[in-house]
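Bumping with the actual sequence this time:
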Amino acid sequence: MKSTAMTMLALLVFTGCANQVPRSADIEEFVGTRHPFAAESVYFLMTDRFVDGDPSNNHEDQGGAHPTFNLPLIGPDGQVANVGYMGGDFRGVLNNAAFIRDMGFTAIWMTPIVDNPDEAFAGGEPITFGGAFKDGGKTGYHGYWGVNFFKVDEHYPSSGLGYAELTAQLRDNFGIKTILDIVTNHGSPSFDMPVDQPKFGEIYGRDGTLLADHQNLPPEQLNPDNPLHQFFHTERDILQLSNLNDQNPAVVDYFVEAYDYWLEQGAAALRIDTIKHVPHHFWKQFSDRIRARHPGLFMFGESYDYNANFIAQHQLDKNGGISVLDFPGQQAMSKTFSTPGSDYADLLDYLHLTHGPYQNPYELTIFYDNHDMARMNASDAGFIDAHNWLFTSRGIPVVYMGSEMGYMRGTVEHQGNRNYYGQDNIELAKTHVIHQQLKQVANVRKNLPALQRGLQVNLDFGGDQAAFYRVLQYQGQAQTALVLLNKGDTPAKFHVSRYLQSGLWQEQFSQQSRDLSADGVLDDEVPAHSVRIWLRQGQIEGADLLEKLRILTAHR
């Protein structure tokens, strides 16, 4: 995997032009998913914690007695986390769009960009270093405490660079889509304050009209006859956060209009926070109405649960047809790539390629960590192995900012997981070994439809080795990619004959070619902590592989 950038580019151009086959009604289709968003790979960043590109919007004096900027949490041995704003903004994202694009990512998911309160929360239990499920003393730096869902938070835009300008420039200048992170089950912390604070527990309309106000009352004291209380349930849900009333048609209307507003400004997909806290009937209404305006819109939700049968319910058409983040896969990946001597076979159970609970497993967004859990505690080699798997196996890869250099590995939310990344770290990342290998495999996926949407045909999984095909025969494209993975510390030999098709196979990193006969065998040696991807162009001809693909299609 040491080919030069020019060699890689030439090879990818060659494969991109050669994968066309004549369209014909007689050509059998084999495809994991037809949804075009499956071609994307996603870089996830916390907007405030990425890069401060414009210090003029930092609002360092905001909050008065409850300041919002740079609120450190001090831990042992010099460790520091932070629950205040740190300066990340749209300018910082745009300034580093080329960095993200060049790694091979085609979409950016940013944490919510809507208006949040202008003070730190004075209620609740005080947050401490490494603490969880405590909001006292925290700010809305993360964006999930929405107050006006039609208004951009003042910490993010710059002169001439609002959300619409950001999405347009990312799309037109860098080929990057923007994913909007949305919340519908809660607003800001809304009660338990010593004195009612401005904006907390309040919801505003597009014209700035106050629509709802918790008035610092606990949910059980809200009055259903009070118009300002009707946006809220009278039962508690998460900490002191307002529990929005999904039974109220006005709440559904509000969020349909609010998120349509941002879609009209260029958001290309939606990531839904805490989707399991809102009933399916809400999502059915929401998705039907949003997709009536934006046909085919891709949405994926955070249903934080490791039970595949549970999270799969969101994908059903009757529940809104919303894909999900693959938490069972996250659990398996994090364990496998953090543990020396682990077995690749441990990854098989979460795939559910046939007879599984998912309406379509190829549309799941796959990841090994994020901002709400401990970052993966792996070695550099472990991160490299994780990326080799993430960008070749089924699903849409999502990588959390900083993972390209193993940033703050092993830390939880208020222990360093969400620490400010910054321009200096990005410059360091550009020369990091994790980044270098991620860039190579992600760019291969970016240019190979078989790795984006192809059916996955597993061969051998055991110990440090895994081998599988990704096969695509769809809309004039016909590709078979043979993926060989080695997460061991020494080179590994592979001997592949099952389902192997005759014809010219080309390895995507080294440019090696093999012209195989009908009864041929492909022998290869994969370096330590590496991947080899052999590509064959053309229709599937072998009867055994055709039968396997028909089974995978019928029972996907």
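The tokens above came from a reply further down the thread. Residues 273 and 302 are 5 Å apart (CA to CA).
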